[in-house]
Design goal:
By secondary structure, this protein is of the alpha+beta class. It is built from four helices and eight strands. It has a domain at 64-202: Umud Fragment, subunit A, CATH 2.10.109. Mean pLDDT is 75; it is low at 4-8, 10-47 and 212-220.
Length: 220
């Protein structure tokens, strides 16, 4: 027997036999870990596809609603919408009923709250200016730090003429009070203040909605 074969046999004899519970066995399973990594990477790859499909369905439904409401506004000249979102706080609160009248580009001015169509969705913001060529509106939410993108003439649908809140109706003001601007900036920067304000608003709506049920009726 050659010397090289003796050395090889002695080396193999000294090597420990890996048991299922030994740590040495970890080196015998590299493919299992690679497969697990590939599966982990494959799982999130399918999630954006599902999210995109659901987002597309929501976008299509909103686009259909927006198109129907636009047709009603153009045909009748009036429309009532319920305000959603927080971008116009404190001028508009979620749940406010807005009366909107159809208008033209020349009928609106700086400070008016207008209804616009943007990418198949309704946007209700305040006018902060017009472009120099008088072809675009510049709008911005009272509670947002920056203006929106330019709004073409064709995307202007109407102007908010009345706001119904807590059973009372008032007309929107073009001039935003300084106190409203300070409050809107505070709501934008402090989420805690925003949550407190929304809780107070919701509780007030709830209490007002319960008043008719608890009212007493005098006998006739």
């Amino acid at each position: 027997m050659s010397t090289s074969k003796k050395i090889f046999r002695q080396t193999r004899a000294r090597e420990p036999i890996a048991s299922p519970n030994s740590s040495t066995n970890e080196f015998l399973r590299p493919r299992r870990y690679c497969a697990a990594r590939s599966q982990d990477r494959a799982i999130p790859a399918t999630e954006p596809i599902q999210n995109r499909s659901s987002d597309m369905k929501i976008f299509q439904r909103e686009a259909i609603k927006c198109d129907l409401a636009s047709q009603v506004l153009r045909s009748t000249g009036e429309l009532r919408l319920r305000a959603l979102g927080l971008s116009m706080l404190p001028s508009l609160w979620p749940g406010d009923i807005l009366s909107i009248q159809s208008c033209t580009f020349e009928d609106v001015a700086r400070g008016d709250i207008v209804l616009c169509s943007r990418e198949g969705q309704f946007v209700i913001h305040r006018i902060v200016g017009k472009s120099e060529d008088r072809q675009f509106l510049i709008t911005q939410g009272d509670g947002l730090p920056r203006p929106d993108g330019p709004v073409p003439r064709r995307d202007l649908l109407g102007k908010v003429t009345a706001i119904e809140r807590h059973g009372s109706v008032h007309k929107p003001k073009r001039a935003v009070p300084v106190s409203h601007r300070i409050f809107s900036l505070a709501l934008w920067h402090w989420n805690l203040l925003l949550r407190i304000a929304m809780q107070i608003h919701v509780r007030r709506n709830f209490s007002l909605n319960r008043k008719p049920a608890n009212a007493t009726v005098e006998p006739t």
